[in-house]
Design brief:
Layout: H1 7-27, H2 35-58, H3 63-86, H4 90-97, H5 107-133, H6 138-168, H7 176-197, H8 204-217, H9 219-224, H10 226-235
Helix pairs in contact: 1-2, 1-6, 2-3, 2-6, 3-5, 4-5, 5-6, 5-8, 6-7, 6-8, 7-8
Length: 238
């Protein structure tokens, strides 16, 4: 229990990273965003806040409140999962609107992004289920939920870096790979720091978190596959 006594402070750092990353991207178009995006944004935000409050309650002996709030928290996670999957058609909409003379990534990047974000949502869902199933084992329960925060963070961090690089580079010099690599240079050290801090280097959730890096780095070859593009257009309607 002592190892997790300051976990809530660590999770505040994760929340701040996500919010700083997504702030300008989200709020700059706040009035024009769809209701699905608004609901997803706030559900994910509440999930990160939940991951701050829950370890604080658990490590201070307030287990009744921890369990009661846990029921609400998993409903929030379920809502985040549902809305996350409902937004997977956005990359295809961006492909439809793409023109060669318009700044931005080529179509294959959006196709790859769709696949990546689907895999991230599956990983997040799996982590939540494991967190529920292992709720009687503090170390297991805590690490699966910590991992869920990392699985969910990368779309926000990536979008934040798009805004950052656009502010300092001309459109013709902004390559998608720059955004991808700079996002991983934030994610990997931070995730490994958490794994070291909580003694979970060899845990299944840690392995999944590192395998997700590989999936994200394969975004371009995945998105460049004509078979993948045809499948996505056939399966996902918008």
């Amino acid at each position: 229990m002592e190892r997790y006594s300051k976990l809530h402070l660590w999770m505040i750092g994760v929340l701040l990273l996500v919010q700083v990353s997504i702030f300008k991207f989200y709020f700059s178009s706040f009035t024009t965003e769809t209701w699905e995006i608004h609901i997803h944004f706030w559900l994910v935000t509440f999930w990160y806040i939940f991951l701050i409050i829950q370890p604080y309650l658990a490590t201070r002996g307030k287990l009744d409140k921890h369990r009661t709030l846990g029921i609400i928290g998993f409903l929030i996670a379920g809502g985040a999962i549902f809305t996350g999957f409902s937004l997977l058609d956005i990359p295809l909409k961006l492909v439809k609107d793409w023109t060669p003379d318009r700044p931005g990534p080529p179509p294959f990047f959006y196709y790859g992004t769709l696949v990546v974000e689907f895999v991230l949502m599956v990983a997040f869902t799996y982590a939540i289920v494991q967190g529920i199933l292992r709720r009687k084992n503090l170390a297991e329960h805590a690490w699966w939920l910590i991992a869920s925060a990392f699985y969910m963070m990368m779309p926000a961090v990536g979008r934040g870096l798009i805004v950052f690089w656009r502010s300092i580079l001309p459109p013709e010099k902004l390559k998608p790979i720059l955004v991808v690599l700079s996002a991983e240079l934030i994610y990997i050290p931070l995730f490994l720091l958490f794994a070291f801090k909580f003694g979970k280097f060899r845990h299944q959730a840690t392995l999944i978190g590192l395998l997700l890096v590989l999936v994200r780095l394969l975004r371009v070859p995945i998105g460049s596959s004509e078979a993948v593009q045809t499948f996505l257009k056939a399966v996902i309607q918008f």
